[in-house]
Specification:
51 residues; mainly alpha; elongated
């Protein structure tokens, strides 16, 4: 049986990686086109979109 804390920590880490990647991409887009980030659903809602 696995440790429930370890599995919860792994899920939190995965969610944090998704959010960090979205923030990075949003910062890159904002430098080129400030409105571009609002046209991409994956950046507005990084944890709720597919992909």
């Amino acid at each position: 049986m696995s440790d429930p804390f370890a599995s919860a920590a792994a899920r939190l880490r995965a969610a944090a990686e998704v959010i960090a990647a979205a923030r990075y991409e949003q910062a890159q887009l904002a430098a080129r086109d400030p409105a571009a980030a609002w046209r991409r659903a994956s950046l507005v809602w990084p944890r709720f979109t597919k992909g």
